[in-house]
Amino acid sequence: MTDPFGSAKGTAAPPATAGPPVRGPWPPALVDREPLLARARDHLTAGGSVVLTGPAGIGKSTLLGTLAAEFTDHRVLRCSLSETERHLPFLGLIDLLAETGDDLLESLPKHQRAMLESALLRGDDPVGERDVLGLRVAVLAAFRNLCAAGPVLLVVDDAQWLDAPSAELLAFIARRAGSLPLRALAGLRTGPGDPQDPPGLCPPPVVTLPVPPMTVAEVGGLLGGLGLPRAVLAKVHRASDGNPFFALELGRALADHGEPLDPAAPLPVPDGLRTLMLGRLFALSSGARHTLLIACAAARPTLALLRGAGRPEAAADIAEARHAGIVAPGDVVRFTHPLLSAVLYAESPERDRLAAHAALADAVTDPVERARHLAAVAPGRDAQVAETLSEAATAARRRGARAAAARLGLLAAERTTKPEAEPELRLTAAEDALAAGEFAMARGIAEDVLAEASLPAERVRAWIVLLDSCGQALAELDDVFPRALADARDDPALLAPLHYRLAWRAWLVKGSARRAREEAARAARLAAEAGDRNTELLALTSQALAEFHVGSPEAERTMARALAGPQDPAIRLGHNGPVYLRYRHHLLHDRLEEARGELRSLTYAVRQRGLVESLFMCLYGSAQVEMARGRCDRALDLAYQCLRLAEDSELSQGPAWCAVAFTEAAGGSLDRGLAAAERGVGHSEDDGDLLFLPTTLHALGHIRLLRGDAAGAVGALRRVRRLETAQGLAEPALRRWHADLAEALTATGAIAEAEGLIEETRRDAVRLGRRSVLATLDRAAAVVTAARGDVEVALHCMERAVASLAALPYPIEEGRARLELGRLALRAGNAAAAREALHGARRVLLRAKAAPWLAAVTSELDRLDLGAPPAAGDGDPLRALSGMERRVATLVAEGATNREIAARLFVSIKTVEAALTRSYRKLGVRSRVGLTRIIAVPRPEDRSA
What we know:
By secondary structure, this protein is mainly alpha-helical. Helices cover 65% and strands 4% of the residues.
């Protein structure tokens, strides 16, 4: 569960004991490689060439095809190569020019045509060694003729297999491409024993982009139709090393497996991959394979450990494996691909695997790893093994390895000879799984305990695990609370944690801050009566949060009670604990540096303890703080870290997408921000999360406003207002949507509603002393006043807002106010004041790297430099163009290149080219020259005259 400022776990997923995987074929989902595609696309659009590198199966061919399909205005020449054909001369060139037809040959002089026909096997005589120079000239002439008809894109897949004569000809052309509209897109396999990059294959400038392995979430998307538990998906990801080809093959083997896979069991490896891997492994000596089997079973196999496990010749064996490309160089033995390890372990006889574990159990000194090997060697119930496993789980927990602690604890429960100890061991393992973000595992354990336990304490503890594992989707477990309360009877020690969770239910499901406060206060009283200080701290923190939301003066005193007295580090440092509350309290009072300091300390602590959900919340909060501080690049990085953590665990993705939306709107792309906001709203609505839905809707409305969609912004932000009103909230410094809604309402003509909102919010902000909220309300009030027609009063109000925000640590808000001040000054006819305000906004926003806002400032400065555009119908040559098209066309007329325009407007080069294409069509011209002639922008001295 989470606090009202953030989020936590995701929608309740099926239990780990769900039915068998889907059999037969399934439609694998497309993997999102948009960041890589965007980089490649931008470089190609700018006139460069791109080489995609990576191992076989990583997806280079798919990416090449996707990119090539986007360049519809290019003539695309392709060749797809194979190892068996690399010795056939000129085959690459033949493939590239296969669809050019005879017209290309006929455009060449007779002697050049004869040479090229010969190389392409369209003539009678083969090319001889003495004709190489002539052939080079002929091929260069052919490509010049092709480029004269339009831009050309060469697509060379598996470039490492390109035959030498074709590679030499392409390198010759690349060196002499010059200003030709010729670029190349190549895929190059990299890995042990693979050929190196053919030198100079692509026309410069060339960028090399490694294709990254997929994340766990992307593997899950690829195999989404199989319904695999997360633990099995994680195994597939590790075994495939994030390679989509291997992941799909493993997925097909799982689909044919026909029954649920035990996450602890080896993955079924399809015959094709097993044969491929075994062929490499059985080329080794039996001694080397024996040593590698022990390395497979060890967590961190070093030569010293292998020697200690009975392999005195380990150094020679590992050197043999390294020479065969099976083991990578390094102090720790690491297989060049995880499937080699998986296949060797799975195909080894059971007696050899048990012997490896037994040898390692004697050799390792780490208690956690020793317990794991003992459990493998001694199946069945054994008191000593159970005790060793339980001690190892405790050690793993202290290290912050909560997932390992959960699995060791579960093994201890399965091996114990004391039936009365088994529920305690299982429930502790379930709580470790919760901390590690393994919610399906935790649910499965809790369901097993509830099926057998009769003691109220054990049953209530299991109910709590079920509740905590569903996160934001508490509505799906409404029937659990009555059953849990019935088991708790009148025991305050059992009732207190249940009422604490009822407080979260009041937030998430009922949307009632008042009810949340009542339940939290009751939980605190019950916990104090039972002497349960930890639950009391959590309940007091929840109570204080509810009181802050409703604007109650009791909030400060309740927070002080939560921060006073003894503090268990596990509670104090959690995201629902009082220290996280103190960070939020700093934000309410505009103390960004103090908030940042609290979060930095918390982040370090939760990483050490392995608390996945708390780490998620710290990353979310840090992204928010860095964005507010004007560190947009850092905020974007943190937001995407937050998203990756949510994708790789079972946390709700709604808050993570919301963080991405806000940070993209501040320092990235409004298009990406809008897409992220829409996804965030979808996740929050699917979870029935009335606590976080308003924040996500605020992100959606904010971005729509920035994109000029005032009506869409009003729709989203009015929803936020209705939700907060229904919840009884009166703290304007929490979500800060009020000024956005007021400005959107003004843009749609609802001025009276905007004025009422500003006045209502101002009363709460004054009562609570929220300076930054008052400053943004001044900005919104100035916009409303200007809409009423009183520009002079609006200017004074906006100047006050700028001065207030300049004294506060919110540079983006300051830049936004300066931008509005410039617009008002321009409207009042004061060009000098407008220019001063806009340049001030630019200075502030440049430091913040706030790209979307800088684009808006640049647009206003361009408008100022050109003078106000005449009204439609009075001779304005650009009246048919949109705002972006107008700005691009004007800069083209001033002589700027596409790259310069993209940098100045903070957009991609592809966006510039698209705007130009539309402008040509609308204005009836075919070139930059024609566009410039139509615009005929006067020089500054002409305008002054």
